[in-house]
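Comment thread on ticket #2218

A.B. wrote:
> Attaching the input chain for the structure job we discussed in standup.
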Amino acid sequence: MSPSVNDIALQSTGTRALGRGAVLAAMCLGVLIAQIDTSVVNLAMHAIGTDFRAGVSALQWMLDAYNLVYAVLLLSGGLLADLYGRRLVFLIGAAVIAGGSILCACAADIGTLIAGRAITGVGAALLLPSSLAVIRVVWPEEKERGRALGVWASCNGLAFAIGPTVGGLLIDTSGWRSVFLLAVPMAAGALVLAWLSVPESADPHSRHFDLPGQLLGAASLGSLALAAILGHDGGRLWIMALVVALATLLLFLRVEARRGTAALVPLSLFRLPPFAGAITAIAAMTFGVYGMIFLVPLLWQSVGHLTPRLAGLAMMPSALAFFLVSNLSGRFAHHVGPRLLAAGGTALIGCGLLILSSSTAAAPIWLAQIGQIAAGVGMGLNTGPLFGIAVGSVGRERAGTAAALVNVARMTGASLGVALLGTVYGLLGGGAAGFTGAMLLGGTVQLGGALTALLTIRR
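C.D. wrote:
> Ran it. Output below, let me know if you need it in another format.
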């Protein structure tokens, strides 16, 4: 197949003016924008509710508008990156996040704030898949791409480590609006660096905007995100949303199977064992980890072990372990192979959750910390290799689609983990018994993901 015009442009421009270091810095800023924005907004809920006299339901939608819009548009973001340019879509995503953040900071009522959060979700759906796709294209060599992805993945841990600290400081000193303005200079930095350093690339190859696939994919992912949102309140509505998600998923698969290579998500990708195994392990990873992040601080506060602020600080060692180990995961993968690192890291997360299950209501704190740190180290070991395997096992012409599916797997695992592990926790009466049952299930799913990675991923 002859190279496209954009392929030739990429080869001729290299990495433009500033080199690969600037490309990686721009992509890392993109991840930090999205993740810090998510982690700090929770801290501002009380102050926002007081200012706007908003109820719990409105505040919940202020948080969930971002997640719902992000889920609905995620597949579209990956496709647009492949069709029209990964650099272009990244730039638009960063600009949209900045605009949405400014709208949130200037909001005069809770409705405007919810709209600003929804706009920010649009930006994240464009920015995150395109950033991963840019790394796939700019680092075609597996070894160097593994190192770049290790640094990129570590920004997730860094965001969760510094986000609550910085957010709390800003709220105390400058008010809740400053939390949203935090994203603006970071988005500006990402825009400038990406404009100067990232080479444009696109691979349309007779592909087009698959409207039936887009609508069904959006309905399925949106219903899944809605199930996770409704699951926080108990009841049965989340089960109905989950049924809708499953029904629309089956229709989506039927439509995509008929479209073959022109599909939004060619199902042939899942016949590639490394890709399917990596996607499965990613979903298993977030299933247990996000369930842990949801339940551990909830339990600490409900039984009176820790205050909200101390609970946030107690979660930090796990995030720091994730950040520090992720930076080294590319080097580790070069020595022991991405397969062993992906499977071993996922298994270590499972062991961490099983350690948590052996504690009594996440106490003593030191035992819970051991479990959380083990999970953080496991995430640091496996995140970069798993992402690298997923995007590296498909052709670069599908880089945006593969990157979007990586994020779909993350979101799906996280949504199901919070909903199902939270349900197990409630069905068993909460407290120590509910927590033990939830962590046992989460750890078992992790070990299943580790076994899948070990059996399907090959060097």
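A.B. wrote:
> Thanks. Noting for the ticket: Confidence is low (pLDDT under 50) at residues 1-14.
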